[in-house]
């Protein structure tokens, strides 16, 4: 077995792992990435990029059709083959050569193979040909192995060869009938995409609303959007068994049968930590890693768990944020420098809890940051909620009959914004202003001076402040 030493070993070269290694090298340390699939991970090949590429054409067409004058120019339908081709180009045809080039250019070493912890600061990498390399870390090992699709314990489900989000984002054609199990981010986005690309989609959600952690107004708007597009959304539907009859998938549900050509299972994620040797350092395998705010694993001072692997926020941008914070902490600790662990320091991921932004790319979109009203209530924060229609000069110019909602959650003791949700066409681009207001704890009385340009959809900020003032 060959042996090598690095300052930092990163297991998993997804977007999170790449960033941990990059920050370590920028800080003057040596780093190696261990990867057993494609460098770039889920986001680049089977998640964010292909899913958004599948949705973008549909979105653009809807925007054009919502403006009189432009609508008349849209005389054809979406070219599905071209959309799938554009999706393929965004995944570089599932070839990671470009990312490998970036890794080398950044001064990071890469070892292909499966990495497993083997005691303190040691990782054994097994390559596809069975050869092994023992790596020793002088300072830190970062586990950035991500997550995988969770499969619910439904009788027969595994045997019908369901689609995971990987198949849903990489399929070469639209199935005639697609069943979608789960009404969260993936279920709602993929139902939107494939319905528009030609499938007849049935979405089965066991709860009584879609996007169960979103503001209720967002869940309702997405439900209306999906049903308006022709998706058969069945709320409160519990899938009890699955079987194939010939080419057909049949689901037995609490509200009757559902039949389709494929079934996508999108009921959440599970940690990809089952086979990485956690037991060799006294940790439970298969579980999300429990970490402190510097992303260091509780009780193991040289081990970090970053990105999806810790289950804190399953989003690419939050994994990369955690990577920057953890990377800074690793570099500082390696140099014997003090690591400030107070909120908002350069070494902690305070935004995970206080200000995580996300966008659900449905039609309408849902863009949110910070706490929802329900979360503020649960946390016992004194607050007020302002909810108003997103009707301003800018939105009516953006689209005829623009419909949307804006919700602000204000901490009434501190008079600062602690959460915001925007629902409507193209609201994704409104989000960063809200994120800055939440992170900056900008006093409401100062926000009055952040005058939105006229006529833009951002005028909603003024309306929210006016509604708050009463
Ligand atoms: C359909 C879908 C759409 C999504 N869309 C968005 C979106 O629009 N925006 C957003 O912010 N988030 C989105 N997400 C979430 C996002 O994909 C994840 O949060 C993100 O990919 C996590 O990055 P990561 O680097 O932590 O993990 P991953 O991307 O999963 O990377 C982990 C890497 O580790 C490797 N690995 C695992 N175990 C080992 C091992 N033992 N040895 C060597 N290598 C190993 C894997 O091969 C992989 O490359 C989406 C998720 C899905 C499923
Ligand atoms: N645009 C984005 O940023 C984006 C897009 C996709 C995924 N993601 C990330 O990936 C994560 C995983 O997405 P996801 O959609 O798989 O999980 P999710 O947690 O968002 O949603 C899962 C949904 O499945 C439902 N469900 C659970 N068990 C069920 C069952 N047995 N039958 C029917 N419904 C069931 C839940 O009620 C929930 O609504 C998200 O939480 C998000 O962090 C982000």
Automatic annotation (TrEMBL):
Q: Which UniProt keywords apply?
A: FAD, Flavoprotein, NAD, Nucleotide-binding
Any single GO molecular-function term of the entry would be: flavin adenine dinucleotide binding
UniProt-listed Gene3D superfamilies = 3.30.390.30, FAD/NAD(P)-binding domain (3.50.50.60)
- Looking at the record, the residues that make up the FAD/NAD(P)-binding domain are 6-316
Cofactor names from the entry are: FAD
Q: Where does FAD bind?
A: 52, 115, 145-147, 308
For the Pyridine nucleotide-disulphide oxidoreductase dimerisation domain, which residue ranges apply?
A: 356-461
Q: Superkingdom of the source?
A: Bacteria
Q: Which InterPro entries match?
A: Class-I_Pyr_Nuc-Dis_Oxidored (IPR050151), FAD/NAD-bd_sf (IPR036188), FAD/NAD-binding_dom (IPR023753), FAD/NAD-linked_Rdtase_dimer_sf (IPR016156), Pyr_nuc-diS_OxRdtase (IPR001100), Pyr_nucl-diS_OxRdtase_dimer (IPR004099)
Annotated PANTHER family: DIHYDROLIPOYL DEHYDROGENASE, MITOCHONDRIAL (PTHR22912:SF151), DISULFIDE OXIDOREDUCTASE (PTHR22912)
Q: Would you identify the family this protein belongs to, as annotated? A: Belongs to the class-I pyridine nucleotide-disulfide oxidoreductase family.
User: Under which name does UniProt file this protein?
Assistant: Dihydrolipoamide dehydrogenase
* Organism, as annotated: Blastococcus haudaquaticus
Per the UniProt record, the lineage of the source organism begins with: Bacteria, Bacillati, Actinomycetota, Actinomycetes, Geodermatophilales
